[in-house]
Amino acid sequence: MRMWRTWLGVLACVGGAQLACTPSSPEDPLSEEPSQEQGESTNAPDASVDVAPPLVLNDDGHVSSPPPPAPQPPLPSIGFQPGFHQALRWSHYVGGVTTFRLRVPVARAGERLQVTFRAGDGNLTLQRATVAKAGVDGSLVSAPVALSFEGKPGFNVGARALVTSDPVVFPVGFREDVAITFEVRGALAASAINAFPGSFARAGTHALVTGAIGGEPFERSVGVASVHVEGPTGRAFIALGDSITEGYVDLRNDTRNAWPALVEAQLGVPVVNAGVSGQGFYDALRLLSDEVLAVKGVTDCLVLLGTNDLGDAGAEEQMETRMLLLVQRLEPFCRVWVSTLLPKEKTNYGAYDYVKSQRLGFNAWLRGGGTSTDVIDLESVMRQTSNVHLYLDGLGIDGIHPSTEGHRVMAAEVVRTLRERGEL
Asked: Phi and psi dihedrals of 27, rounded to 5?
């Protein structure tokens, strides 16, 4: 939620040009990981993460939108659709060549894949990358297959660039774990929370090692923005949200236990995760082009946003305006589903009386058809009947975030709604 206010200033470096970017030496490949203390962040993001913003923040504090993108053409019978995605808002810097082995679940079956890498807040050099079936403790259970980039083994790019590999023959099954291994130096885009157990980093060049690469666990998503898999096309969802969607439960998490992944497992279709801990509507709109609209082959968008916007006087009206703008930008791209906000038992930002009244008002607006889109009423299955501001026993962990059991309950309601009204 508003969880990063307490350490954003600490992590800013080089005159505020980077986030999470403490330099490292070849002997110490890992820069300092951000604290996972659950505070709250500001509504407006630091300017250092602004990347070709699709919105303009005018002097009066409102956002204006460029023309919406053209509607996507119908999907071909065979094509690339997302099997994995992360909106990598933060940055991680390594000063010497370092090998990362990221273990990710791929939510789409097919015979070929492409991997999209993203640079962090500075230049990035990738000298070699491979993909293989993931084993235990960082080992591989298949020979590593080399990735190429316009026929070359690597690339050099500037800050926040997205680079997609050439298609490579690599058969993969639905929700099969793959190991993406890459040798890099410089700034890599990264997630904020630990959610990828079984991932490692080690100084040096180890992309071709089939056994465990050793080094240190590195469980944040880093470098790899998306995996697209070629196969018969069908429904493919992307979930937009904050830490509730990204899957924060504790200091160590597993993306496989977050509600989007649980929906995916039950429906048998990709539900990739674009949740970003700490964000509100401002952030989501500002970086929508790179973090969501750049993901090809999406058919449906699930939106659970607004908890971090609560608390300021006038916030409800601003939330409604920005939700409508978000829906307007998404509708040419996907079928939009919006969710009511979950209970919020406390706040570290703004007056709690504002938080309570604004949340109820915003949810009523959504249920009343304010967005003219499909609504998934997650609040209704998570709240106590006697007090709408409290989680049902066992479904919350800290008054703001759902527990692991809470994620299961949320997923069940999403699945029920999609099967009832989404032709699934």
From this structure: -75, -20
Q: From 325, 344, 177, select the one nearest 255 (Cα to Cα).
A: 177
Q: Residue 368, Cβ neighbours under 10 Å: how many?
A: 9
Coil, strand, or helix at residue 124? Answer: strand
Candidates 160, 163, 162, 164; CA nearest to 120 is: 160
Strands (E), 174-270: 176-194, 200-203, 216-217, 220-222, 224-232, 237-241
pLDDT category of residue 64 using cuts at 50, 70 and 90? low
Q: Which amino acid is at 142?
A: S
3-state secondary structure of 133: strand
Local structure of 318: helix, strand or coil: helix
What are the tens digits of pLDDT across the range 287-316? 999 999 999 999 999 999 999 999 989 999
Can you give the pTM of this predicted structure?
Answer: 0.85
In our burial notation (b when 16+ CB lie closer than 10 A, e otherwise), range 2-24 reads bbbebbbeebbbeeeebbbbbeb
φ/ψ of 134, rounded to 5, equals -85, 135
Q: Which residues contact 59 (CB under 8 A, 6 or more apart)?
A: none
In tens, the pLDDT along 72-84 reads: 778 889 999 999 9
